[in-house]
Amino acid sequence: MTDLTVRTLEASTKTIPQDTVAALRGKLRGTVALPGENGYDAARIIWNAMVDRRPALVVRCLGTADVVNAVKLARDENLLVAVRSGGHNIAGNAVCEGGLLIDLSLMKSVRVDPASRTARVEPGATLADFDKEAQAFGLATPLGINSTTGVAGLTLGGGFGWTTRKFGLTIDNLISADVVTADAKVVRASEKENQDLFWALRGGGGNFGVVTSFEFNLHPLDPEVLSGLIVHPLENAGQLLSDFRQIAREAPDELTIWVVMRKAPPLPFLPTEWHGKEVLIFAACYSGDMKEGEKAVKALRALGRPIADVISPHPFTGWQAAFDPLLTPGARNYWKSHDFTDLSDGAIKAMLDAVRALPSPECEVFIAHVGGAMARVAAKATAWPNRDAHFIMNAHTRWRDKAQDSACVAWARQLFEATAPFAAGSVYVNFMPGDENDRVEKAYGANYRRLAEIKHRYDPDNLFRMNQNIRPTK
Ligand SMILES: Cc1cc2nc3c(=O)[nH]c(=O)nc-3n(C[C@H](O)[C@H](O)[C@H](O)COP(=O)(O)OP(=O)(O)OC[C@H]3O[C@@H](n4cnc5c(N)ncnc54)[C@H](O)[C@@H]3O)c2cc1C
């Protein structure tokens, strides 16, 4: 083994002697993976194929002690450091070029305590890992809609999905977190300990340290939920979306309806003549009593003349993975997102114009339906400020061929500009692509100043900067 050349925080490089790497290896339960070594590619390859970075070394952690040793090395040697859990973030900050990668993807334990209805979750666990363990006891906490996403990044950004309107954001269900801070100390953050850090972790992303364990509240949720898709021709979408807007406004907390507009995938229940044609899909989930759910989805089912309606009881863990086949890793992806307090006619028109000009068969416009319990928490109660958002639009731009990069990115940006006049001005940090660093302050709005002060307290040198970065401010 030779000495390593590693990028520093100041974007220069320095040499790390092989003895230092050997000493690190000796301290770990996990491993160090250098380029070409076992586990190196598994750690550095992430969901978005647009991101292809090569760290100088990867620490594949198996526990908090490994994380402490990795952070110590980064801090003592002033190394550029990235933190990876599920590797799903669109911006690709989970991996750095030439620096030290702290890989948490092997730390996957989920322990549910059914008596206290709580769970302890390690950062490498995916949403599927968490749901499967919790549902073994008929329990759940709100998570996202793609089961291969990491619990860690999702939680630190805020986290919402099918049960958010009923049970709040993922962070609203966080009880505590164990954090390795920039000075390589292990601290607990909760309502009782390090309250400022706990406030900041709930939406402030990976800015404040490396979380090695999350403790969550769980809620009773039957293993079957009324859920499924209703598929319509796109030509009726204008009327459908204005009717949807009204239904969404009046929906009980248990009912969540997301909209997806795209070319129809070859779903087995769709007649083949519709495959590849533009469609509007309502994806609905009722997190509660099945009979009440039937009543709640009636108005949605009565809209227009659908091509297919497959709303019925489904296993919750299956529904949580329903969109997985459309969101597999390995494609090129670029996202643009806005929050909306309501869906104005102008926003609907701009979205429909974009769906009529999709640049690739896998591109789609998603409209998430939030609010409910999420909106009943004060904007200053956690770092996540966007409690007024009722709809979150995300342009999921997705393609395979590098030659299409500029056309696809341009499509998303155009949709973003066209919908901006109707949007709330805020954005969910977890939906921000890598070129939106100038939008971070806006994303946090009135909470940014406090976040910057807490960042200064816990990470004054900005060691953790591979994220939607909050600059330390006194
Ligand atoms: C297909 C798809 C669907 C999605 N759907 C939803 C959805 O329905 N709802 C929703 O809320 N979000 C959704 N997201 C967004 C998702 O929440 C973010 O991408 C999130 O960052 C993923 O977490 P991860 O652990 O997989 O990410 P990673 O890429 O591993 O990490 C993202 C960033 O978080 C920080 N980080 C990660 N782990 C830690 C840690 N342990 N300690 C400190 N910092 C850490 C780092 O800064 C890192 O760069 C979706 C993403 C994808 C790709």
Written overview of the protein:
With 474 residues, the protein is α+β, with helices and mostly antiparallel strands. Helix content is 27%, strand content 24%. Strand 7 (110-113) and strand 8 (118-121) form a beta hairpin. The model has no long low-confidence stretch (mean pLDDT 97). Flavin-adenine dinucleotide binds at residues 46-47, 83-90, 93-94, 104, 123, 144-146, 149-150, 152-154, 156-157, 159-161, 205-206, 210-211, 327, 430, 466-467.
Relative strand content: 15-25%
Ligand inventory reads:
flavin-adenine dinucleotide
Number of H- or I-type helical stretches: 15
Which regions have little confidence, pLDDT < 50, spanning 5+ residues? none
What value does the average pLDDT take? 97
Characterize the main sheet. 8 strands, antiparallel
The helix content is 25-40%
Shape: globular
**Count of DSSP strands:** 21
Global structural class:
alpha+beta
Radius of gyration: 22 Å
What is the rounded distance between the termini?
Answer: 43 Å
Summarize the structure.
The protein is 27% helix and 24% strand. With 474 residues, the protein is α+β, with helices and mostly antiparallel strands. Strands 14, 15, 16, 17, 18, 19, 20 and 21 form an 8-stranded antiparallel β-sheet that branches. Strands 7-8-12-10-11 form a 5-stranded antiparallel β-sheet. A 4-stranded mixed β-sheet has the order 3-4-6-5.
